[in-house]
Design brief:
This protein is of the alpha/beta class. It has one domain: Rossmann fold, CATH 3.40.50. It is 41% helix and 26% strand. It has nine helices and eight strands. Strands 1, 2, 3, 4, 5, 6, 7 and 8 form an eight-stranded mixed sheet that branches. Helix 3 links the parallel strand 1 and strand 2. Helix 5 packs across helix 7 and helix 6 packs antiparallel against helix 9. It starts with a helix and ends with a strand. It binds S-adenosylmethionine. S-adenosylmethionine binds next to helix 1 and helix 3.
């Protein structure tokens, strides 16, 4: 099965659980994205790899118009349900690939992409597409899991993530995100960071990994040996807790 098919299969299974997950609907994390984007009522926003429309719906409350695009039809269906339930009339969604965004150059004033770069075989190519459809003076805003700058920790983390979700490719470091944005002619900076705290069993329940035992083993080994995954993983009250490190990066279009 190719990466694209793995991706769609994985996120078709995850769509309903993902839409409801508390960590993914965290209001303070969303506020950091809205603030970084400096969203105003005149903005025309594109949310790339929009999933179940959580980001698109949040921006729609502040912007003139929002478009969401995602490779997985079931995610787009979830996004449409969410926005209809919220009575949002200024949002529309499409099924499509970030590798070839079907929009004109400079069509949007804000382009967002949350928690998706690590799923892409060519994140730099995706950022170039996002920059292409962003108007001069506009902002490309990316929030994603970042890997440790220690390659051993990064490798252990990426292996554990691929066991949990075979559509995971590789988390970039924050420097790699910035340099990819700069290669796309964006003036890039880190606008903020936060930790997304979760409990392992609830993540496994919503992400439906091929073998949950393999994922548990990665975490148990890390806790027992101290060979960390870089996720502040620990056991508390009989459960394994950890926290994804997230950065929010902004690239201004000159
Ligand atoms: C972890 S989810 C994030 C969803 C959403 N951005 C959010 O933060 O709630 C990743 C999403 O990326 C989408 N995706 C993966 N590869 C893609 C591609 N090449 N083009 C468009 N969407 C893609 C998946 O279908 C999935 O919905």
């Amino acid at each position: 099965m190719g990466h694209r098919e793995t991706m769609v299969e994985q996120f078709t299974r995850q769509a309903a659980g993902f839409a409801q997950a508390a960590a993914l609907n965290d209001a303070s994390a969303m506020q950091m994205l809205l603030t970084a984007a400096r969203v105003r009522s005149s903005d025309v926003v594109l949310d790339v790899a929009c999933g179940p429309g959580i980001v698109a719906a949040a921006f729609a409350a502040h912007a003139e118009r929002v478009t969401g695009i995602d490779l997985t039809p079931e995610m787009v269906a979830q996004a449409q349900l969410r926005c209809a339930a919220q009575g949002l009339a200024n949002v529309s969604f499409a099924v499509g690939d970030v590798a070839q965004l079907p929009y004109a150059d400079r069509a949007f004033t804000i382009v967002t992409c949350r928690y998706a770069l690590h799923h892409l075989p060519d994140p730099a190519g995706a950022l170039a597409q996002m920059a292409r459809v962003c108007a001069p003076g506009g902002r490309v805003v990316v929030a994603d899991i970042v890997a440790s700058s220690d390659p051993l920790i990064a490798r252990r983390f990426n292996e554990a993530e691929r066991a949990r979700d075979p559509s995971h490719v590789r988390a970039l470091t924050d420097d790699e995100i910035l340099s990819s944005m700069r290669s796309a002619d964006l003036r890039a900076r880190i606008a903020g960071s936060y930790r997304l705290a979760v409990e392992l069993e609830s993540v496994l329940a919503r992400s439906a990994p091929p073998d949950p035992g393999v994922v548990r083993a990665h975490f148990e080994r890390a806790i027992a040996t101290g060979e960390t995954l870089g996720l502040e993983e620990r056991r508390r009250d009989g459960a394994i807790h950890f926290a994804f490190p997230i950065v929010v990066a902004v690239g201004e279009r000159a």
